[in-house]
Amino acid sequence: MHYKLIVEEPELAADPYLFRYASAFDLALFHWKFGTDMQKMILAQPLIQQFIQQKNQKFDVIIAEILFSQEPFVALGDLFQAPIIDFSSQCGTHYVYDILFNPGIYSYVSDYRTYYSDRMTLYQRLINTLIGLFQVYGSYWYYFQEQEQIMYANFNLTYGAQNKPSLKHLLRNNIVGSIFNSDPLVGYPKPLLPSSIEVGGISLQPRKPLPKDLQKFMDEAEHGVVYFSFGSILSSEKMPPVQKQYFIEAFKRLKQRVLWKIENSSDIELPSNVLTSKWFPQGDVLAHPKCRLFITHGGYLSLIDTVDAGVPVIVIPFFADQPKNAHIAETKGFGIHLHFDDLTADLIVETIDKVVTNKSYSVQAKKMSSLFRDRIVSPVEKAVHLVEYTIRHKGNPLSQTGAKDLWWYQYFLLDVAAIIIAVILFVFIFLYKVLGFFVRFVIGSSRNSQPRISKQVKNGKKTN
After folding, report:
1. Nearest to 129 by CA among 112, 105, 113
2. Which keywords belong to this entry (predicted)?
3. Annotated domain spans of the chain
4. What is the pLDDT of residues 127-159, one digit of tens each?
């Protein structure tokens, strides 16, 4: 790969293990703060400014993760007169769907920060709608204000004082395609425009032989191997001591061998059946026939790896899309969801034994793998076609939809609903008035048709 590192993404200042206590609303606020701070830092880099000032550069297409904290870079489309394809490292959010005019319908398209599926209860649909609206309109009315200022402060774009477009306008017009690192099988089906494609599995690499020591360790595992990794953000080294000790005690009691991805294990008294390393070739480890189980934090790439390999999982999620991914694994039958704060050594051992001995998890994992691999074209081919199509046609007419010209109340058919409700109310009121008139007419006619009886009293006696 040929690239030049201009600026390295900073490490999170907060302990990522504490994010498990954050709500979806907390994470949205964190994302907005992180996004603006990151853009200020990136755009302050001399090499970035030098790149922006070279306006004579020509590009056929620009591929960037614009809609994840990098919105100001949408100005590159106007700067270099090139169409933009947005690449999303995860499934789309309601905010992303709204920008791209994909119908992120709240009734069955759940937010990635929730664990909800595409079949939600009334309460879940209410919460999903509130989160979606907060994310979409909070972005437009709050988050975009500062990002727009950052964009105009760093990109020397001349539109004229009266024609200065908003950040939202540029995002909706300069981005002509989107590539989502998601898959409807490892998730839930959702409606997308033809210009938006899902390429879950694009990160998968061809299988390679394992290093000799690792190959030997797995080959000689009589009862199989359990692979344990919390990814790159959640460092096992920085895991709270109580839970770390639970894992050590649990691994001592296993008959399986364990591969544990941990950055530093020098201060741990490891059981003889555990092999640690700062890094393992995850896809190749999961593909080994002796791999029985994957204990993971539930990052989407890890979920893709395990589905591709057909290995069941225990998911211990913390934040972002991880709770949803844990729910996907559990509801689709190839894994179990555990909460980090509920962990004990006994629970870890019991859950491992359950997944390894209950063949239904392994059978379902292999079925998921078969379904996942059964596709017309590979994710790479889909992505390449979208990019080349955009270059050939200098844009993407498939991204143009009438939704661009609709107001929000028109998009959600509130005006149509108002007319229908008004007509129904008019009909009911009309029928009520007619019925009332008819009832009064009948009663009045009945009274008028009765014979009149005069009564006289003479000498204290009543006579007719």
Report:
1. 105
2. Glycosyltransferase, Membrane, Transferase, Transmembrane, Transmembrane helix
3. 25-198, 212-373, 412-438
4. 999 999 999 999 999 999 999 999 988 887 766
